Amino acid sequence: MAFKRGFYLICGLCSLALGLLGIPLPILPTVPFILLAAFCFARSSDRLHHWLMTHPWFSVALNDWAQNRGIRKGLKKKAYIVSGLSFAVSIAIVPLIWVKVILLCFALGLGFFLKQIPELDD
After folding, report:
1. 27 Cβ partners below 8 Å, 6+ apart?
2. C-alpha distances in angstroms, 104 versus 91, 107, 117?
3. Does the pLDDT value for residue 118 go beyond 70?
4. Which of 27, 49, 85, 87 suits a disulfide with 107, CB 3.0-4.6 Å?
5. In sequence order, which residues have a C-beta less than 8 Å from that of residue 97 and are 6 or more positions away?
6. 3-state secondary structure (DSSP) of residue 33
7. pLDDT above 70 for 1
8. Which residues pair with 107 in a beta bridge?
9. Nearest CA to 91 among 83, 81, 103, 80?
10. pLDDT digits 0-9 by tens, 19-50
């Protein structure tokens, strides 16, 4: 039992770290890693799960996802804007055409993924 709890705790901490890195990095998604961290903390640490679920940056989105399996329209709009700007800057900065093409593919993939998530009223 302790091994399983430790495993979930380590996975949750790694997921949280990757989610936080995903905030400034356009290629790394934030939301899936934060959702995974919440899942892992729910199975390993009541204190960290409570902290994550009540954190001002994540609580609204996590609770919306947990209760309704969707995200608010305003948050979705922000996700489109921030990721679009991040990818645009990255594409403008990178000198290699093949990297630009990969970034563009990721941007389009993220856009299609976001479109599939149900919207909740703000």
Report:
1. 90, 103, 106
2. 8, 5, 20
3. yes
4. 87
5. none
6. helix
7. no
8. none
9. 103
10. 899 888 766 778 778 888 999 999 999 999 99
> What does the block give as tokens for 13?
């901490």
Alpha helices (runs of H) in 1-122, residue ranges in sequence order: 2-21, 31-42, 46-54, 59-68, 73-93, 97-116
3-class DSSP state of 120: strand
**Cα-flanking dihedrals φ and ψ of residue 55, to 5°?**
-65, 135
Place of tokens 């729910």: 42
Residues in the chain: 122
| Tokens linked to 121 | 């009223």
- The predicted-structure confidence for 81-98, as pLDDT tens digits, reads as follows 888 888 898 899 999 999
Distances (CA, A) of 95 to 24, 88, 100, 108, 116: 20, 13, 8, 20, 32
d(CA 66, CA 62): 6
